[in-house]
Amino acid sequence: MRKIHQVYIDGHFVTPHGTEIAPLYNPASEQVVGEVRLADEVDARAAVAAAKRALAGYSRTTKRERIALLERLSSAFADRLDDLKTAMTEEYGAVRGIVEGLLPLAPKMFDEAAALLASYEFRQTRGSTTVSMDPLGVAVAITPWNLSAVFVAQKVAGALAAGCTVVVKPSELSALQTQIMTEAFDAADLPPGVVNVVTGRGATVGDTLTSHPDVAKVDFTGSTAVGRQIMRNAADTFKRLTLELGGKSPTVLLDDADIPAAVGAALTSGFLNNGQTCFAGTRILAPESRLDEVVEAIESAMPAFAAGDPTDPATGVGPVVSQAQFDRVQGYIRLGKEEGAHLLTGGEGRPEGLDKGWFVKPTVFTGVRNDMRIAREEIFGPVLVVISYRDDDEAVAIANDTPFGLQAHVFSSDAQRARRVAERLEAGTVLINRIFGDPEAPFGGMKQSGIGRHHHTYGLESYLEPRAITG
Question: pTM of the predicted model, to two decimals?
Fold first, then answer.
């Protein structure tokens, strides 16, 4: 059993002041595989103090120096990809397709930040004014347990490229992944205090960091409820915020779509990461005229999304992360039946042949109305709903009738028609005939799916403050 009893502050692994010990579980077996000693408010303040001390020097570094630092981080993360793959599978049940397909994005985040930095002008001219793009200051990056390395790299790369120093607060559920990433930060030979890592609970470490007067920026990925709390904490000192929050993304199948192909893509999106992805396409909007075909295609495709051992390459869906999440998802499946939806596939309980582990049967409901809770609330598990519509206008109305607006998908054989529908959808990202976005495009949400954007110039400038100097 692995014991993670240190945090990373001011360039050193140190024993935290916090004394709480939290167990780490393998969700596929429900067995304890490790423990983590959690940081507390004292550790959070020490991490901010270290970042503040480092800021004076790091904020004045040259582009060349920052590029070299980012390149070292890319190399350090790349060196630990195999270890991160193992930790992701053991810690939250990530299946082979996720660890092989998406985890390599982590070192690429540093590469892309370095490439952008090479061409970015921190001093710009607007009329007779010089605009100086200055680093905000100490940034706090709060990351979830799913795809933790990608989220950490995304936020840290943007902050460091801008000249900010960082305190990372990862989820306590991702301590194995966090330990590997922290060792990579240490191996990259960063100046002390430029990156600090404190694992702790949101109610202690999170609240301390997001209300700390010396923190200028908070970059958070997680639930909408926690995002609201962070906004409250940040209000007194007007911290800059990037909040990537929850979603209930629509996948609009237009009536001219290649139904088998579109349904396969829709299920891939909806069940991605065991259904534990903020941008998952969990609402499938199907034309009434082809509803029977959509249902038949779903039934035909479901064997590819069987739940099972996440280490088996044939597994499509692994377990959910915890007993609490398993219970939550089971509650939504019961709720769907109580609301009158038709259970097409899946249902309550574990999949056949699995008597342990937090496995959920990949579930699809049909006959769903958009006012049902299973159509409106983020479930964060492998549960999808099919909602029928009459025409394009109704499809757009249903797709937009949600408090969320993170991502949306449109499938059609007519590119121009698909684009006309896409331009009417209220989502930060709309994908046409695809389920993964462009890494150079901005990513973030509308409405209650968040504030701000990540990636490329949009992400870099979220860590910068324009200063206008005229005369």
Answer: 0.96
